[in-house]
Amino acid sequence: MPNQYAHKFVTPDTAVELAVRSGDWVDYGYASGFPQLLDRALAKRKGLLKDVKIRGGLVISPPIQAVEQDPEQETFRYYSWQLGDYERKLQSRGLVEFLPVALRLLPDLYRRHIRTDVAFVPVSAPDPDGYCGLGIASYAWQVIIQNARTVVFEINERYPTLQGVDGSHRVHLSQADYIVEGEHDPLPNRSYREPSETDLAIARLVVEEIPNRAVLALGVGAVPNTVATLLAQSDREDLGCHTGTISDAYLALYQAGKLTNRCKEVDTGRCTWNLAMGSQALYDWIEASPELFYPAGVDHVHDPQRMGSISNFISINGGVQLDLMGQENAESAGTRQLSGIGGQMDFLEGAYRSPGGKGFICLNSSRVGKDGVRKSNILPCIPGGATVSAPRTLIQYAATEYGVVKLSGLSLRQRAQAMISIAHPDFREELSRYARETWG
Questions:
Q1: In the chain, N or C: fewer CB atoms in 10 Å?
Q2: pLDDT digit string (tens) for 72-91?
Q3: pTM across the whole model
């Protein structure tokens, strides 16, 4: 490590005391990248500062000490770009405020519309030239660092040390005002429940739609993971990866010899991703084989135009509700926020633009509520108060356990007929009656 940066190394407590002022916006980052040491140090400043706003999202390494240690919000308020499991629990306690955003727009938000006073940037151990990798969350850190008043690097000794291609996942010690290091907890593991019979039925139908040499953008959840499992067992060849979040699903495809990235027109030969979330085996794969990956910021990974230059780009995501016009709610139960749109709209548009591309929204046709009553997830219209996450103009394919329908190019009446054909049989007559009354 270059000696000229030794003066920047301070304790977490000192870094926070020097960097954070009352009224500041402090960025914590996103998902599996989390500034654990700096968070603990900031929590100690409760009562010594006022009106400190923290931004993060999809945190899977709880607890956030600055929030937990200040439930009265005397000093800190926490804001999230996307709610994960832990943040939903904070929401039930009134300790998080949701910030809606399509991830591809996040860099421009930071460039032009919002302020970052302090950036807490988790990084890997530096190489002899002072370069660090952005670990398992490239996020929009390159843009945030350029626009922050004060930048603090937190070196996490457990992070994979890959630095990307041509600086795509790399920062330098010279970019930090302060640097902290110390012992960290093991990297957060993200696992998913075993697929249900319905999940398997949906995944089998979707797999039939995926050709050889497809480039996959798999969302998080049981159905996308099951699609990967089935593809690993299939006769498909030369699959590729260009995704917001790389997970164990891609590791399974690689181990089965299906994931080569050989036919990608962009980042050929490499898995392109912005975040990594999964098991320690996934992180070990990334550490051991950096030449297989193109980790990069949101600007690169979530650009629909770039995805559109990739042939057979396949985006697979889950939803909460779809209506007869094809509008999707991906993130709320009524007015209660469940997650966020994340990159779903980005990848739907990318699939639309791609030669041979397909964008799928997958959901169970129905669910059984806590009252024991079966309810349809395909509705006449998205109910008032719920979120329209993706407009009807972006939904290309919808899939349930009863089939896959292509909506693009259909009239409203034709869309309704298509959606009714994949609804649960118990609700088809009711939906058909609404469609006849509305569209004839």
A1: C
A2: 999 999 999 999 999 999 99
A3: 0.96
